[in-house]
Amino acid sequence: MLRFDFASDFSEGLAAVRTGDRYAYIDRTGREVITVDSSFDGVSAFSEGRALVRVNDVCGYIDRVGAVVIPPQFPGANAFANGLAAVRTGSRYGYINLTGEIAIEPQFALTSDFSEGVAAVKLDERYGYIDPQGKWAIAPQYEDAWSFSESRAVVRVAGQPCYIDRTSAIVIPSTFDGAFSFSERLGRVRKGSIWGFLDLKGAVAIAPKFDFASDFSQGLAAVLVGSQWGYITSQGEMAIAPQFNFAADFSSGLAAVTLDGKIGYIDRTGRMAIAPQFTQAGSFAEGFAWVKVENNWHFIDSEGNFLA
After folding, report:
1. How many Cβ atoms sit within 10 Å of the Cβ of residue 212?
2. Most distant CA pair in the chain, distance
3. In the structure, how many helices (H) and strands (E) does the chain have?
4. What pLDDT, in 10s, does the model give residues 48-81?
5. Residues 6 or more apart whose Cβ sits within 8 Å of residue 41
6. What is the value of pTM for the model shown?
7. Close Cβ partners of 31 (under 8 Å, ≥ 6 residues apart)
8. In angstroms, rounded to a whole number, what is the distance separating the alpha carbons of residues 265 and 252?
9. Which of 34, 51, 80, 270 has fewest C-beta within 10 Å?
10. What is the pLDDT of residues 18-58, one digit of tens each?
11. Which is nearest to 219 in space by CA: 258, 195, 249, 189?
12. Dihedral of CA 270/273/275/277: which sign?
């Protein structure tokens, strides 16, 4: 079976791996298809046909044949999303397009990726949202701001989190101490030290009662009850009883869980589909998940077979 010193998720048909100090990309057959320049100190997953590379603490981008298409020059950079990538030049952030041209001039103290047509950015001491042309979609006015998801975004006003819509109207006022992005039409919130969920109108969908909660994924959310993790449905019913030392989100019908110090995968009924045997494990992406056994990294398919 293939083994590496590091492995990352598959994305756009490729996964970054490292053997010794040499990075490469493999395809889903395990074949090495991009040999990375040995001068690169780090690489990332592909997004929109570009992958970040780092050389001497500056970042650039390669294409799917491994050619450098945007030379390393940025002290900080994000992956591409909607044709734009946030980059830092000096102490300010802006955005470049897929050819490396400056699309939105560096002027912001902080930036985020574009989501649902806008990006949260910080100008001076306030956060707002810009469109892909760099114009203000929502003027800077918030103490903090997160990306839009399902037409809602969390912002902080007068020290309190609340949800706004794309017109900047507060559609869910703050009645909680912490708030997070919506996923599958439910938003995770915290009151004191307990967690629950709201619907898109702000009504309590699942009353706060958990010691921690993750976002919904494929119809289930991992929740912490005391010291053990289980899963609930969108109606708040316990679908998989708390029994795990840790539980991750579902992807491709499987979720990584920890039992007695080893990680395996369960299906949506709670059945152990891949026996606990790993020391680290990722989520399934494009048919495979990276796993670590002792000091080696591998890929497995949804049946638990190692990529060979």
Report:
1. 14
2. 55
3. 0, 35
4. 999 999 999 999 999 999 999 999 999 999 999 9
5. 54, 55, 56, 57
6. 0.94
7. none
8. 11
9. 270
10. 999 999 999 999 999 999 999 999 999 999 999 999 999 99
11. 249
12. negative
